[in-house]
């Protein structure tokens, strides 16, 4: 028996069999047979209690209406307040209405029947496929009203707007930091837990972030995907390419605040600033001398070892 959710915000606006039939056809593409309406006490997935909401399902050729058990005023209150009391048991997402939860859970449990004709990806819902197709067409219908950026999905637009508003709704429970997206909160929380879920399959190293694992893997593969457009050099990391390109452009973006010197790399600025601060972090283990940079320490240590590499 197949069950497919019909958007409650759509279904609530229709009162006769014909209108309901039309909305069901649009949302779930049922066959042309008549749709009958009956009231049933419908239990959803295990662990979900149905109450306070009006939900429509299809079961075979029937449109099934589940009436609210305690009225639907609280549903409206949650919609306006942003409260999200329905938790997905498969992941960490929460939803304000049970219908949105049920629709989301299909992404975990249902067959991916909507296939993209331009690539091999498949999706459990038609709306997911429509959004994916925009990666091929370049369509970005969700326009920011505060700048000229546009996005393929409403969710991406919502997250982007927080750049303008400064809103950071995701608060760390371990410290006072807050974040604009749940993704960055999750990343940050690993600094407290020490969790490193991204394990290298070639060695025993593990990482807190997937991007760090991706960069690390290039040590094993030798991959250098970042090619300089001015010469034949290539690099494993984009930041190293950016740094290298300054040898062609002459750009020196790192300015010393104590004098008029500027540098192409931030590491060179850091070393230079020790001239002003007097900091000498590199200590010799054989005597009490210290140096402002590692190169000078290495040269000094040869006075102890007797090494003469340039003979």
From TrEMBL:
First-listed, main subcellular location of the protein, grouped into a coarse class: nucleus
Cellular component annotations (GO), alphabetically ordered: nucleoplasm
Entries under InterPro entries matching the protein: Znf_C2H2_sf, Znf_C2H2_type
Localization annotation: Nucleus
C2H2-type domain: residues covered: 86-113, 114-141, 142-169, 170-197, 198-225, 226-253, 254-281, 282-309
Record-linked PANTHER family: C2H2-TYPE DOMAIN-CONTAINING PROTEIN, ZINC FINGER AND BTB DOMAIN-CONTAINING
Designated name of the protein: C2H2-type domain-containing protein
Gene Ontology molecular function: chromatin binding; DNA-binding transcription repressor activity, RNA polymerase II-specific; RNA polymerase II cis-regulatory region sequence-specific DNA binding; zinc ion binding
Top-level taxon of origin: Eukaryota
Gene3D superfamilies membership: Classic Zinc Finger (3.30.160.60)
Keywords on record: Metal-binding, Nucleus, Repeat, Transcription, Transcription regulation, Zinc, Zinc-finger
């Amino acid at each position: 028996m197949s069950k497919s959710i019909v958007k409650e915000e759509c279904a609530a606006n229709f009162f006769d069999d014909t209108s309901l039939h039309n909305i069901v056809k649009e949302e779930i593409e049922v066959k042309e047979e008549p749709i009958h309406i009956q009231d049933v006490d419908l239990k959803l997935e295990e662990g979900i209690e149905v109450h306070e909401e009006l939900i429509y399902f299809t079961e075979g050729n029937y449109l099934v209406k589940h009436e609210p058990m305690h009225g639907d005023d609280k549903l409206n209150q949650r919609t306006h307040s942003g409260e999200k009391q329905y938790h997905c048991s498969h992941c960490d997402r929460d939803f304000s209405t049970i219908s949105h939860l049920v629709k989301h859970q299909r992404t975990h449990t249902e067959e991916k029947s909507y296939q993209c004709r331009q690539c091999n990806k498949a999706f459990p819902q038609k709306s997911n496929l429509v959004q994916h197709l925009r990666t091929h067409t370049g369509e970005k219908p969700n326009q920011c009203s505060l700048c000229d950026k546009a996005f393929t999905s409403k969710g991406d637009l919502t997250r982007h707007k927080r750049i303008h508003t400064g809103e950071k709704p995701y608060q760390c429970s371990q410290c006072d930091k807050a974040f604009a997206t749940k993704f960055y909160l999750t990343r940050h929380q690993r600094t407290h837990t020490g969790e490193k879920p991204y394990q290298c399959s070639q060695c025993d190293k593990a990482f807190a972030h997937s991007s760090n694992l991706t960069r690390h893997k290039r040590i094993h593969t030798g991959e250098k995907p970042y090619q300089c457009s001015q010469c034949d050099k290539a690099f494993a990391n984009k930041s190293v390419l950016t740094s290298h390109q300054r040898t062609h452009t002459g750009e020196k973006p790192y300015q010393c605040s104590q004098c008029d010197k500027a540098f192409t790399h931030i590491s060179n600025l850091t070393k230079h600033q020790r001239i002003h601060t007097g900091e000498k972090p590199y200590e010799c283990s054989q005597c009490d001398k210290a140096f402002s940079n590692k190169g000078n320490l290495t040269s000094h240590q040869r006075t102890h070892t007797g090494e003469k590499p340039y003979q």
